[in-house]
Q: What sequence folds into this?
C-alpha cells in the first residue's frame, strides 16, 4: 500500500465512522434518575438474599439453633423497618404505579 | 501501510478526545438540567458512538502493524527491529507486543476493546455507563497520545532499507510468550473498567450498590486474565530462563503481583458492601489502588526505572506515565474529598470472630503483602534518590516476608467460609472447625512421620517448617471447602431427593458465585502446595563426557551423545541424556542451546520431564573450555506441577462464578408479628 493509498483508505475510514457517530438517532437511550425508592427496593432484595443464605446455612448445620434464631430475628427486624420505609416513601409518591411485588 | 496505520491512530485519538469532551459536556448538561441546543442524551450518544468508532480505528492500526510484520515491511522501524524474514508466522504476530511501541498499541487496542463492550451494553444503566465511558475515554486519550506522539509504532526507518530485520528477542520465541503478554495486558487493562465504574459511581453519587453488580463480571474477568498472565509468565520463566525457578521477585513480576493482590482484596471486601453496605470508602480506594498499581507496573516496565528481564529500553515514557499517574491520583483524591459523605457505612463490624472480620483480616494481609512488595520494588529507586546509590532488595527479603504472609492468607482462606456473618458463638466455632482442625493435625503428624522434619541434623530448616505448616493448613482448608460442598449438597439432596452428585451440581448452579469462589480457593490451595514444594528442590551440576553418569534423587543421567541442527531461524546444539531409574532406562531428555541467526543471541532450552513426583529439569549450560565436554545441570523440583494444576482450578472456578446463578424459587417467609409492615411478605426463597 502506497502512502497515497493509505491516506485515501484513512479518509474513507474517517467518513464511515463520522457517519456512524452523527447518524440521527431518534430515541437515544436515557434513564430516569434513580430514586430513593429504587434504592430501598434494591436493599430489600439484598436483605431477602441474606435471609435465604442464613436459612440455608442453618439447614446445612453451620449455625446452632439459638444463633440462627438470634440472627434471623435481627435480619427480619431490619427487613421490616425497610418495608415500613418503602411504604412511607410510596405514600409520598402518589403518581407512582403501585409497587410491584418482588 | 505505515501511512494508513498512522492515520488510523490519529483518528482514534481524535475520536477518543471527542468522546471525553462531548461525554463530559453531556454529563454536565444532565447534572445542571438546563435546556441546550442539543439534548444531553443525544450528545452523550454521539460521545458513546465516538468511543466505539475509536476502537474501530485503533483496530485498523493494529491490523496494519501485524500485516506489516507478516509481509516483512522493513520500511517501518519497529518491524525492522523486532522481526525478520525467517521468523515463524505466530512470532511475527507476537511482534505486535514484543517492543515498546507495539505493546503500547496493544494496550490501547485492548482498552478500546473493553470500552467497545462497555459502550455496547450501556442500556443496563445508561447514566452510570455514560460516566464510566467518559472516564474510560480519558484513559484512552492518554494511551493513544503516547502511541501517536511518544512511541509511534509506524515511524519510518531512516536511511537504506535493510533486506532483513533484527529478529525477535530469543527469550520471546517461546509459545507461552505469544499468549503471556496479551493475558497480562487483558488483566491490567481490564481493571480500568471497574475503576471507571467506581469513579463514575462516586462522581454521580450513585444510590445503592448496584454498580458493584454491574462491574462484578468486569472485575472477575480482569482478575482471571491477570492471574492467567502471571501464572503463564511463571511457566515461561520456568521453561525459558533456564534457572529452574518460576518466580524471581523481579521488579516487573512484582509489578504484576501488586494489582493482583489489591484486586483480590477488592473481590472479597466488595461482598461486604453488597450484603451489608459496609467498607464503601475502603472498596473505592482498593479499586483506585488496583488501577493505579497497574499503571505503576507499566511505568516500571516502560520508564527504565528498574532493571528487569522484562523491561523495555530506557525512554522518556516514564515522565508520561508519572504525569498520568499524578493526574489520576489527583482526580481520585479530589472526587473522594468532595463526595465522601456518599460513602458512609450503613453497619459496623459487630464481632471480631465473624465472616466480616475474616474479610477485613484478609484485606489487611493482602494489603500488607502489597505494601511490602511495593517497598522492596521501589527501594532501589528510593535509595538512589536519598543516598545516591542503588541498593537492590533481593529475593531473600521477599521470601522472608512473603512466605509467612502467604501462609497466614492460606489460614484465612480456610477460616473465612466457616465463620458465620455478624458473630460466631463458641458452639458454632466448635461445630464448624472440628473437622478442618483434625485434618491439620493429622497432616502435621503424617508429614513428620513421612520425613518432613524441620529440625533435621540438629539444625532448624525454616523452609521445611514453612512447607509443613503450608501442607497442614492446605489439608485444613481443603477439608473446610469439601465440608461446605457436602453440607450444602446434603440440604439439597434432602429437599429434592437427588443423589449427591446431582445435588452438588444443583448447589453450584444455585449460587455460582459462592461455590465458584470455593473452587478458586481449591486452586489457590493446590498452587500453594506446589509453591511449598520448593523447600525440597535439589540440584546437581557436572561435566559429562560421553557415557559419563550423574545422579539426582531416584534418577541417573547418562550422556548418550549429542546432536546439532540448523534451520533458517537458529542453529541448535543438544545433549542426549538417557535417564535411568532403579537400573532401568525410563526416558530420554535433550536439553538444548540455540543461537538465533538474526540477532546472534544464544538461548538455553531446558528439558523438563514432569512426573507424579515432580519435575526433572535439565539444562545444557555449554561446554568446558578445556575438555570440550558438555556441562549439565539437573534439578529435581517436586510438586511444581501442582502450581499449574492450581491454575486449572482457578480458571474453572472463576468461570463458574461468572455464570449466572439459577433464579430462586418463590416462597413465603414469615415476618415478625409486631411490625407496621405486613405480617406476611412474599419473598423469593431458594430453600
A:
Amino acid at each position: 500500500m502506497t502512502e497515497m493509498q493509505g491516506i485515501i483508505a484513512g479518509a474513507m475510514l474517517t467518513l464511515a465512522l463520522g457517519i456512524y457517530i452523527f447518524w440521527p438517532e431518534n430515541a437515544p437511550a436515557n434513564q430516569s434518575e434513580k430514586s430513593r425508592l429504587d434504592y430501598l427496593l434494591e436493599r430489600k432484595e439484598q436483605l431477602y438474599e441474606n435471609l435465604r443464605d442464613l436459612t440455608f446455612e442453618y439447614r446445612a448445620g453451620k449455625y446452632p439453633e439459638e444463633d440462627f434464631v438470634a440472627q434471623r430475628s435481627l435480619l427480619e427486624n431490619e427487613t421490616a423497618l425497610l418495608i415500613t420505609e418503602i411504604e412511607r416513601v410510596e405514600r409520598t409518591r402518589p403518581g407512582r404505579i403501585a409497587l410491584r411485588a418482588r | 501501510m505505515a501511512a494508513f496505520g498512522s492515520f488510523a491512530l490519529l483518528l482514534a485519538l481524535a475520536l477518543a478526545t471527542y468522546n471525553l469532551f462531548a461525554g463530559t459536556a453531556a454529563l454536565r448538561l444532565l447534572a445542571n438540567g438546563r435546556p441546550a441546543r442539543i439534548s444531553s442524551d443525544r450528545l452523550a450518544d454521539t460521545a458513546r458512538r465516538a468511543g466505539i468508532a475509536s476502537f474501530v480505528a485503533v483496530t485498523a492500526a493494529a491490523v496494519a502493524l501485524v500485516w506489516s510484520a507478516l509481509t516483512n515491511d522493513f520500511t517501518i522501524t519497529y518491524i525492522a527491529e523486532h522481526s525478520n524474514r525467517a521468523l515463524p508466522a505466530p512470532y511475527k504476530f507476537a511482534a505486535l507486543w514484543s517492543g515498546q511501541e507495539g505493546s503500547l498499541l496493544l494496550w490501547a487496542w485492548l482498552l478500546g476493546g473493553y470500552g467497545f463492550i462497555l459502550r455496547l451494553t450501556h442500556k443496563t444503566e445508561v447514566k452510570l455507563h455514560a460516566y464510566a465511558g467518559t472516564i474510560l475515554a480519558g484513559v484512552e486519550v492518554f494511551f493513544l497520545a503516547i502511541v501517536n506522539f511518544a512511541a509511534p509504532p509506524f515511524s519510518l526507518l531512516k536511511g537504506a532499507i535493510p533486506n532483513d530485520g533484527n529478529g525477535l528477542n530469543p527469550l520471546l520465541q517461546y509459545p507461552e510468550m505469544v499468549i503471556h503478554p496479551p493475558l497480562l495486558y487483558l488483566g491490567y487493562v481490564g481493571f480500568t473498567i471497574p475503576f471507571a465504574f467506581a469513579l463514575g459511581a462516586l462522581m454521580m453519587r450513585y444510590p445503592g450498590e448496584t454498580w458493584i453488580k454491574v462491574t462484578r463480571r468486569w472485575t472477575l474477568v480482569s482478575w482471571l486474565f491477570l492471574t492467567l498472565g502471571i501464572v503463564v509468565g511463571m511457566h515461561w520463566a520456568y521453561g525459558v530462563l533456564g534457572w529452574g525457578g518460576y518466580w524471581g521477585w523481579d521488579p516487573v513480576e512484582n509489578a504484576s503481583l501488586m494489582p493482583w493482590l489489591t484486586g483480590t482484596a477488592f473481590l472479597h471486601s466488595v461482598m461486604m458492601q453488597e450484603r451489608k453496605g459496609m467498607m464503601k470508602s475502603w472498596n473505592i480506594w482498593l479499586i483506585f489502588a488496583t488501577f493505579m498499581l497497574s499503571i505503576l507496573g507499566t511505568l516500571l516496565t516502560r520508564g527504565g526505572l528498574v532493571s528487569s528481564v522484562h523491561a523495555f529500553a530506557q525512554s522518556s515514557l516514564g515522565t508520561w506515565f508519572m504525569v498520568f499517574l499524578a493526574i489520576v491520583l489527583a482526580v481520585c483524591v479530589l472526587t473522594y474529598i468532595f463526595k465522601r459523605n456518599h460513602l458512609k457505612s450503613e453497619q459496623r463490624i459487630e464481632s471480631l470472630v465473624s465472616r466480616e472480620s475474616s474479610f477485613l483480616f484478609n484485606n489487611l494481609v493482602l494489603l500488607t503483602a502489597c505494601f511490602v512488595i511495593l517497598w522492596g520494588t521501589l527501594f532501589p529507586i528510593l535509595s538512589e534518590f536519598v543516598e545516591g546509590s542503588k541498593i537492590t532488595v533481593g529475593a531473600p527479603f521477599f521470601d522472608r516476608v512473603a512466605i509467612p504472609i502467604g501462609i497466614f492468607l492460606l489460614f484465612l482462606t480456610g477460616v473465612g467460609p466457616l465463620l458465620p456473618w455478624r458473630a460466631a458463638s463458641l458452639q458454632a466455632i466448635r461445630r464448624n472447625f472440628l473437622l478442618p482442625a483434625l485434618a491439620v493435625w493429622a497432616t502435621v503428624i503424617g508429614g513428620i512421620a513421612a520425613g518432613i522434619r524441620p529440625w533435621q541434623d540438629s539444625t532448624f530448616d525454616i523452609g521445611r517448617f514453612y512447607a509443613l505448616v503450608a501442607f497442614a493448613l492446605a489439608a485444613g482448608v481443603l477439608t473446610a471447602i469439601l465440608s461446605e460442598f457436602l453440607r450444602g449438597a446434603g440440604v439439597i439432596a434432602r429437599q429434592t431427593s437427588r443423589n449427591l452428585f446431582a445435588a452438588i451440581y444443583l448447589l453450584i448452579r444455585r449460587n455460582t458465585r459462592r461455590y465458584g469462589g470455593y473452587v478458586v480457593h481449591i486452586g489457590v490451595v493446590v498452587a500453594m502446595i506446589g509453591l511449598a514444594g520448593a523447600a525440597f528442590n535439589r540440584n546437581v551440576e557436572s561435566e559429562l563426557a560421553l557415557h559419563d553418569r550423574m545422579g539426582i534423587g531416584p534418577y541417573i543421567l547418562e550422556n548418550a551423545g549429542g546432536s546439532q541442527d540448523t534451520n533458517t531461524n537458529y542453529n541448535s546444539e543438544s545433549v542426549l541424556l538417557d535417564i535411568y531409574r532403579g537400573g532401568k532406562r525410563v526416558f530420554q531428555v535433550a536439553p538444548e542451546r540455540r543461537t538465533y541467526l538474526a540477532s546472534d543471541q544464544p538461548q538455553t532450552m531446558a528439558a523438563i520431564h514432569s512426573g507424579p513426583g515432580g519435575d526433572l529439569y535439565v539444562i545444557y549450560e555449554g561446554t568446558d573450555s578445556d575438555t570440550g565436554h558438555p556441562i549439565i545441570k539437573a534439578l529435581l523440583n517436586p510438586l511444581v506441577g501442582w502450581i499449574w494444576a492450581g491454575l486449572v482450578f482457578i480458571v474453572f472456578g472463576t468461570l463458574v462464578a461468572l455464570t449466572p446463578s439459577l433464579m430462586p424459587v418463590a416462597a413465603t417467609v414469615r415476618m415478625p408479628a409486631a411490625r407496621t409492615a405486613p405480617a406476611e411478605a412474599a419473598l423469593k426463597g431458594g430453600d
Notes: Chain B has four domains: 1-167, 174-420, 425-535+649-659, 538-637. Chain B has 19 helices and twelve strands.
